[in-house]
Amino acid sequence: GQSLEQPSEVTAVEGAIVQINCTYQTSGFYGLSWYQQHDGGAPTFLSYNALDGLEETGRFSSFLSRSDSYGYLLLQELQMKDSASYFCAVMRGSTLGRLYFGRGTQLTVWP
Amino acid sequence: DTAVSQTPKYLVTQMGNDKSIKCEQNLGHDTMYWYKQDSKKFLKIMFSYNNKELIINETVPNRFSPKSPDKAHLNLHINSLELGDSAVYFCASSQDSSGRARGQFFGPGTRLTVL
Q1: Cα four-point dihedral sign A3, B83, A42, B92
Q2: What is the arithmetic mean of pLDDT over B21-43?
């Protein structure tokens, strides 16, 4: 089986930086993904880390430490539109697309 | 241009009925998925198909039967609906069966309510 832990809620103000942590326990770990979901919307892909280190894409960065079974999503220069749920998801196995999601972190950005 | 589309968007039905949800992707992807998201937003994979062949079945009750007539379509048929089936069902696709580098693309979801 697998388990993923991430905070249920995070709040921040516009312009701030927020980090959403994710710790996981799973067999056959292959990589860690992050998805964003606005209320009533579909999950959208943000990032994927298979190797240790930081991946940067615009205002969002994602980090992975395989030895610590830990990753985080860093959101910079927060905007109101960033208010959403953020899910970490582990990829198990190299070719079968087995994606298992955490329970999500609700980010609220205040003006 | 819709990448992954699902119909219907909303489905309200009585317990015991049989219903289907359709999914189509125009991205040319090889792999398609069905996910269930419950009222607490927990998103769980149900099935995955690669080039019309089933590759993942996550211990879903056999009342749920996916069908892939071609690699652009993955439909979900549900028999004898139960109250616990109420959820949002998302279809997704990815370019290959790993779905890792570019992620999985999700459809808009179908909100199923069983009364």
Answers
A1: positive
A2: 94
